[in-house]
From TrEMBL:
The keyword Hydrolase applies. The lineage of its organism: Bacteria, Bacillati, Actinomycetota, Actinomycetes, Kitasatosporales. GO terms for cellular component: cytosol. Keywords: Hydrolase. GO terms for molecular function: phosphoglycolate phosphatase activity. InterPro entries: HAD-like_hydrolase_sf, HAD-like_sf, HAD-SF_hydro_IA, HAD_sf, PGP-like_dom2. The keyword Hydrolase applies. It comes from the Bacteria. SUPFAM superfamilies: HAD-like. Pfam families: Hydrolase. One of its GO terms (biological process) is DNA repair. This is HAD family hydrolase.
Length: 229
């Protein structure tokens, strides 16, 4: 199946995670999940929460509270709602990571179709898109609501490739978590890791990152030597 554009060249998708990759929000999520859990009587370390960021809410809770038969999942919805309420207080001032918008524009100019791949819900995604401020070059958005299973399953990446009408081998996925790297690798897409979400280089490489950069500015400065070359 060839995904060709008008000039007969293969469509190439530049797939991007958003939290921790384009917007500096991972630690805000950590604090909000930590507080939601604390209010419900669960004492989970911030470090553990940080390592789970990037998983969809119910998977994050299963990861932190145990996914065995004995876990009571009846409070998951309330925990997620508490997180969303706490996190919503930051919507008007979510910080973009420096040069995130320039990186997306540079890839768009080079003929890449930019697609966001996120676990964020629609309201949260609107706030993130306002923060990133590059809507003019974002071709599509794939959210975990659109698929059966979120990252680290490959489903969100497959869905994003369909939206971009691009093949896996011609595409690149940029993210900041182990879950991003695993999802990309399982979908057969080159995985690029960024360190700005706070996850160590070794963990990203072990999960399948082909290349690792400090942040969007670092990747932008070295695009010609990157998997995007």
């Amino acid at each position: 199946m060839h995904h060709l554009n008008r000039s007969g060249r293969e469509n190439r998708a530049a797939l991007f995670d958003v939290d921790g990759t384009l917007a500096d929000t991972n630690h805000l999520h950590v604090v909000c999940w930590w507080e939601a859990l604390r209010q419900a009587g669960h004492h989970v370390s911030m470090h553990a929460v940080h390592r789970a960021i990037g998983l969809p809410g119910e998977d994050l809770l299963a990861h932190l509270l145990g996914d065995g038969q004995e876990r009571d999942t009846s409070e998951d919805e309330a925990l997620s709602a508490a997180h969303d309420t706490l996190y919503g207080t930051y919507f008007d001032r979510l910080p973009r990571i420096d040069a995130a918008d320039e990186l997306l524009r540079a890839l768009d100019r080079r003929g890449w179709r930019v697609v966001l791949v996120t676990s964020a819900g629609s309201e949260e995604l609107d706030a993130l898109r306002r923060a990133v401020d590059a809507d003019d070059v974002i071709a599509a958005t794939a959210s975990s609501d659109d698929v059966e299973e979120g990252k680290p399953a490959p489903d969100p990446v497959h869905h994003a490739l369909e939206l971009a009408d691009a093949s896996a081998h011609a595409s690149v996925f940029v993210g900041d978590t182990v879950w991003d790297m695993k999802a990309a690798a399982r979908a057969g897409v080159a995985a690029v890791g960024l360190l700005c979400g706070g996850i160590p280089r070794h963990d990203l490489e072990e999960a399948g990152a082909r290349a690792v950069y400090r942040d969007p500015a670092d990747l932008l400065g070295r695009l010609d030597q990157s998997p995007f070359a």
